[in-house]
Amino acid sequence: MGDVGRVPVGIIGASGYGGVQLVRLLIDHPGVELVYLGGESSAGKAFGELYPHLNHRVDLIIEPIDLDQIAARCQVVFLSLPNGLACQMAPALLEKGCKVLDLSADYRFSNLETYENWYGKTRSDQAIAETAVYGLPELYRDRIAEAQLVGCPGCYPTASLLALSPLLKQGLIVPETAVIDAKSGTSGGGRQAKTNLLLAEADNSFAAYGVARHRHTPEIEQVCSDLAGHEVLVQFTPHLIPMVRGILSTVYATLRDPGLVREDLLTIYMAFYRSSPWVKILPSGVYPQTKWATGTNLCYIGVEVDPRTDRIIVMSAIDNLMKGQAGQAVQCLNLMMGWNETLGLPQLSFYP
């Protein structure tokens, strides 16, 4: 980074789980200075009041959202907001010269009609949305490096697409046979009180939700279609697991060449991700566990082939708040600033 100094960054929506994870990462990041935390309901409160465990490191106050002030103070702004709010702020911030990373779904779709159909909000910023880059570095690294606006992927799509991408890009599977069976910890539901996330409701239980209608489905399909070169539909079913962090996505698909064996596929995966420091392909017969990725930006991938059914089974494990949210956003920031994409991100979990 030379003599340029630290880049001033801000977070709008700092009080949620995505926000606090961003704060924790950016405070320790050698390339940035965290100068602004913004929010509405928590404005005026010290961040250390919301999260006392960070009080000794973070002395910032949550401020009201004033886009003119934010743009004057920040070179980069993270939007960690509920869906439908980032699109009201990003255009003004971009016009004022800020780089913007949106952690919601607002800028994940190149076609806003898809967003409107699945998220129920009418949009008028198609021109801005067309400039957004989908923030999955393993697929769009070069485009992210040139972007002013990045739409950071959802947690389920990140885990699922990292499992599927080599298969679709290389034409190794029959695309319409892809089935994604994914499980997530409860932190994926955010910090707002929800009955189904209460300890008494979620503990000692395991359930599917959003069956055949989860909002991450079109996001996964958009990237799958891009990789395959034609429209691809997938079957995606998410489940809630009684743990705090982590996602395990298990992908099933029929191989075009039933002669391929596990070692062939492992070679293909290792080649595909050879320049991706955050993706770790596991040895033959080893399958990932969510605990391995906890607190890191890593994605662990295990591969198996079932010769009886001619199907490949790919298992992908990430921390939903890190590689699935804040960590990936910081990875994108590193690329946008021309830094090493591992800068300031944890590479080893605490185990067990």
Key traits:
single chain; alpha/beta; 13 helices; globular
What would you note in describing this structure?
It is a single chain. The protein has 352 residues and is of the alpha/beta class. Helix content is 32%, strand content 20%. The chain contains 13 helices and 14 strands. β6, α7 and β7 (149-151) form a beta-alpha-beta unit. It starts with 6 loop residues before the first strand and ends in a 16-residue tail after the last helix. The mean pLDDT is 96.
Structure in a nutshell:
It is built from 13 helices and 14 strands.
Mind sketching the topology for me?
Blueprint: E1 7-12, H1 17-27, E2 32-38, H2 47-50, E3 62-63, H3 67-73, E4 76-79, H4 86-95, E5 99-102, H5 112-119, H6 126-129, E6 133-134, H7 137-145, E7 149-151, H8 155-169, E8 179-184, H9 199-202, E9 207-208, H10 216-228, E10 235-240, E11 247-254, H11 262-272, E12 279-281, H12 290-293, E13 299-306, E14 311-318, H13 326-336
Parallel strand pairs: 1-2, 1-4, 2-3, 4-5, 5-7, 6-7, 8-10, 12-13
Antiparallel strand pairs: 8-11, 9-10, 11-14, 13-14
Helix pairs in contact: 1-13, 7-13, 8-10
**pLDDT averaged over residues:** 96
Number of strands: 14
Strand order of the largest sheet: 3-2-1-4-5-7-6
The sequence of SSEs as H and E is: EHEHEHEHEHHEHEHEHEHEEHEHEEH
Q: Percentage of helical residues?
A: 25-40%
Span from first to last CA?
Answer: 36 Å
Structural class: alpha/beta
What is the radius of gyration?
20 Å
The coarse silhouette is globular
Low-confidence stretches: none
Number of H- or I-type helical stretches: 13
- Biggest sheet descriptor: 7 strands, parallel
**Strand fraction:** 15-25%
